[in-house]
Sequence to fold (401 residues):
Amino acid sequence: MILLIKIYNKRFHYYEFIKPIEDVLKKNNIKFQSIHYKNVSEKLLNKAKKIIISGTSLKDNGFIKDIDRFNWIKKYKKPILGICGGMHILGLVYNGELKKKQEIGFTNIELKQEFLGVLGKIEVYELHNYYVISKEFEVFGRSKYCPQAVKHKKNPFFGVLFHPEARNKYLIVNFVNL
Amino acid sequence: MMKCGILFSGGKDSVYAAYLAKKCGNEITCLITIISENPDSYMFHTPSISKVKKQAEVMKVPLITQKTKGEKEKELKDLENAIKNAKKKFGIQAIVTGSVESAYQASRIQKICDRLELDCFNPLWQKDQIELLNDLIKRKFKIIITGIFAYPLNKSWLGREINEKFINDVRPLFEKYKINPAGEGGEFESYVLDCPLFSKALEIKDLKIQGKKNSWRMEIEVE
Fold:
């Protein structure tokens, strides 16, 4: 079972940031369960084979104040994919720092090392006002301004700043099939 | 609950986005309609746009309209002004759009909302097109086709209602000609005559059809 963690604090964002990921999982016959970060339990974390942490809208940043609720990541060993806000969370839990930089719309990025089965230039859809820097993550690809694809140096934790559920759905499937 | 301004064309996507906003407990505070003088606008649907006034009446929601010449960057400035007015006049906290696939449209609206400190909701984003049409039928939306703009669609599609037969007819065109079944690539445009947000159904009182080959438009009068 894939555990999909919702980080919005305005429920109406479900349709834009969760449903498209759920649709990718459904289309590929992947079992999943969606849960809000405030309701994550040890039982669910144990049950999950892998975890996806979603993003949310530019103005829906309440999860940053709740970063302590993600401390379970420090002890977790199974694969995690953090998307946009989810990548911010991974970085912050590992002593990272948020920096302000807006990118909205299509951007070209280059994956210089293979990342979730993909290498080279890809076009991605961006929607963020911040990015995260953490020394505990290695950068696999960047846009002109920000790290876009990172992996934790020891654990199977992947972060993408862009939204693969918009134009790079195969990355979500590749993560599930790791 | 948030006070939402709906970017509203009167077609199925923006009306359905408004419906979902309300269903999630938000207030439909006002509708914002851009009337483009450019029929090929990248941003806005143009047919039947004067009919949104009738829809706003039966929704009992105030309508803000803004004219634009439809030149690429100028129309974005006009849109930003309209949203700014909606914030000032009605205190909206968020914008709701019916964007499904168009990153061009979505990214520009996101930037405007960010500048104006408004949240932005795109409840149809990436939604499967056939699922969208099925949802509309299930929720008793009465929608007709008011414009078609791509081969192999022709005049006979004008005035058709979106129902199961419509889905069956449009699905093979999607597969063969890459016609987007929900018409978001501008293949066709629609008008909502009735839905759960309307206090009464609208009826067509008069219609005028014009066009040629694979580009036809039906201007309707509703009441």
About this structure: DSSP finds six helices and nine strands in chain B.
